[in-house]
Amino acid sequence: MSDGVFIEALVVDDETSLLEELKDFLSFQSVSVHLAANGIQALEQLAAHPGVTVVLTDIRMPSLDGLTLASRILQAHGDADAVEVVLMTGHGTIETAAEAVRAGAFDFLRKPMELDDVIVVLRRAHARAIARRDAYSTRMAEMSRLRADYADLQDRFARVANPIDLTSDAPPVLAHILAHELRAPLMPLLSLPSILSDQQSLPAGMLNSYLRDVRKSGEQLKDIADDLIELLAPPREDSFVWQEVSLGRLLASLEMLSLPAARDSKITLLRSVQTDGAVETCEAHLLAALWRLINHAIKATPPGGQVKLSVQEAQRSMIAFAVHNDGRGMTEAEIQSAKLPFHQLDPALSRRVEGMGLGIALANRMAQRLGGHLDIVSPATGGTTASIVLPRTRAQRAPR
């Protein structure tokens, strides 16, 4: 009986009666069977039927034996169109089995074979071929996204004024910050072209690990570009779309935006809605400002720690969007400095927290443009809570 898994297979043997027996049996097992009487025909059949995932071939055949055929198939088919080869022989020895392994065969069957054993091996081989093809498609999709990210980063940096202009009249520490924060994530990206050209020769595990590093570097550079763009060219007034937004929905959107970074850093993200209703604000700009606070909180929290997002009532009909982290905390002087551009709590190159020191400063500026303010509290016991406090309605905004 079929288990519902469709398999397209090629059976190769110079024994016509065995070919017909296997075809009759496998056809009742959701297997579409193509037949070949020798290795040359097998290669022709494979070229004509790219859906084949498993080749079941005899070892001893005239002109092109099964071991040579297996080697040719596996050399010609990489992960993109993966094919697994199962070898059959009526003269099975330890040496023959060793040759099958060296040839890259998936499995080895001795004649006469139980037909039930054949279908079990074919299904396992098919599953492995499909897994290889799917993994290849996933890698190619990731590479496509990386290429798009790379192009996007180039475009973003092209829109930023020459970085040298930022440092020409600035103290040396500013040049030091820019040089380190830009160069560190650029290194994996600079080697991206060679990695893409060598993709077939790299083990899948190594390639996937490198792609994760490249994507992380791309995200770091994207954050840097976004911060520099907003620093140099703050959003225009006509980019602010004012509307009433549900407090619960805002916090849920913020949680979804933050989950990937929290998972990558092994941080638990908690959410608490302590008041209901809505706030009249620009949702896009508020979320961007709160994300900068969360990004800083995640970086400041040791792995295994927690970052808590909450919204609650504040004094004088104000709403406070709070981000709390379990980091080491900040002194009063550090709190005041953090609201200024390019402030880093720890300027050492070996520090764990990355960034140019723009996130809190930009969040502070955006809070003011939204009609509120940024409040940072860090008790002596440790941890820091940064809150963007806003009026519930636009009419309550203090004149600017």
Summary keywords:
3 domains; elongated; 13 helices; 5-stranded parallel sheet; single chain; alpha/beta; Heat Shock Protein 90; 400 residues; 5-stranded mixed sheet
- Provide the domain count: 3
Instruction: Note the total helix count.
Output: 13
Largest sheet: 5 strands, parallel
Task: Report the portion of residues in β strands.
Answer: 15-25%
What is the fourth-level CATH superfamily of the largest domain?
Answer: Histidine kinase-like ATPase, C-terminal domain
Percent helix range:
40-55%
Write down the overall geometry: elongated
Number of strands: 12
- The assigned structural class equals alpha/beta
Highest-level CATH class of the largest domain: Alpha Beta
Remind me, CATH topology of the largest domain?
Answer: Heat Shock Protein 90
The separation of the N and C termini measures 77 Å
Cα-atom radius of gyration? 31 Å
Mean pLDDT: 79
Uncertain runs = 160-172, 345-353
Q: What is the N-to-C order of secondary-structure elements (H for helix, E for strand)?
A: EHEHEHEHEHHHHHEHEEHEEHHEE
Task: Identify the CATH architecture of the largest domain.
Answer: 2-Layer Sandwich
Please list the strands of the largest sheet in the order they lie side by side.
Answer: 2-1-3-4-5
